[in-house]
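Record 1 of the preview.
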Amino acid sequence: MRNTERHPVDKSNSLWQIYKTVSFWKVVKNFIVIQIARYTPFLGMKNWLYRIFLRMKVGKKTAFALMVMPDIMFPEKITVGHNSVIGYNTTILAHEYLIKEYRLGEVMIGDEVLIGANSTILPGVTIGNGAIVSAGTLVHKDVPEGAFVGGNPMKIIYTKEEMQERNKAELPKPK
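->
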């Protein structure tokens, strides 16, 4: 199970009660900042917007591609390590609003991680250093360090050790 905090609600579904869980003005501010960041081609500016206005933890030389959508309500629960790439149109969620409860969870993305385009990362997930997430993947559980994962539901395609063996086999032989 993902590492999330569960908060039960009464009467109506949890999304209908959204502004009991997060400030309306926080959501408005986050929406504006995220929309600017989604369209700007300047990587340094995106990281600055995320760090300063959204309180996300973003490592040096990390690159968010166009149209990346960080969590609009709880972006401060997202951490991305150094020298990582978050692919085009990826969604990173730190919340889930359900019928009888809402859930919040930290998202931890390690150093030198590659997230392929159109992936979705659910709350409470940790993606280990050096991992590769294939395009279009639903990341619904933790990803081990150095693993190559993909699919919906996500599966481990290669472990860290298998990736190291593949990389050795692909290196050109010295003459």
